Every structure is written in C-alpha cells, then in structure tokens.
Amino acid sequence: PTLDAIYIAINLLIWFAYFVIMDVRYQATLGKMAMRLRVVGPDLQPIAYGKAVLRESIGKAVSLVVFFIGFIWAAGDPRKQAWHDKMAETYVVKSSTDIKGSKANS
Fold first, then answer.
1. Residue 84: what are its φ and ψ, rounded to 5°?
2. How many CA atoms lie less than 13 Å away from 16 in the CB half-sphere?
C-alpha cells in the first residue's frame, strides 16, 4: 500500500471511531451536543457498541448510497429516523424529549 492509502485508512478509522465512541459514551457527537440532541435506543437509553457500529458503518453507507436519500428520509419520517437509524433501531431525539415527542425525565 502507498503512503496515501495508509493515510486515508487511518483517517477513516479515526473518523469512524469518533462517531462510534461519542454515540456510545456521550450519546452525541460535539455537533449533536451543541444542538441538544442525543442518540438513543427504543428505550431512550444509551446504545451499545454493536448498534453504534451498525449505525455508523453499514447504516450510513446505505443512507448515502443513493444521493443521500437515506438522510433526507428523516425529514418526512414520523419518528424522524434516517435509514441508518432504522437499521440500528436508534433515534436522534432532543435531550428533553422521548421518541413520541412527549417530555422525558432527562
């Protein structure tokens, strides 16, 4: 492998690890934190590493493969789930609301 390929692979690994670790450990990336959003499972609890890996790898690849339609899908979805959220059974919610939009204890 060339030095460029190694550099790209390392950058992709760091990018992937950032999203997975932040989703599991803090329930949000820095951008989601700034917007007061969090990633949760159906029980409103933090997601496990397996779900985070599925969401950030295969899920997001599927979401962007056809002109980002999987991301755009969330705008019209009743639960505001993008395709990668549906695949991993996750939700991006406001820090103070539950999946249905009513107030939660957080």
1. -65, -30
2. 16
Cα separation of 12 and 15, whole Å? 5
24 exposure class (CB count in 10 Å sphere: 0-12, 13-18, 19+): middle
Exposed e or buried b per residue across 58-87, where buried means at least 16 C-beta atoms within 10 angstroms of its C-beta: ebbebbeeeeeebeebbeeeeeebbbbbbb
Token pair belonging to 88: 């991993």
Residues 23-54 have pLDDT tens digits of: 999 999 999 999 999 999 999 999 999 999 99
Say if CB 106 and CB 44 are below 8 A apart: yes
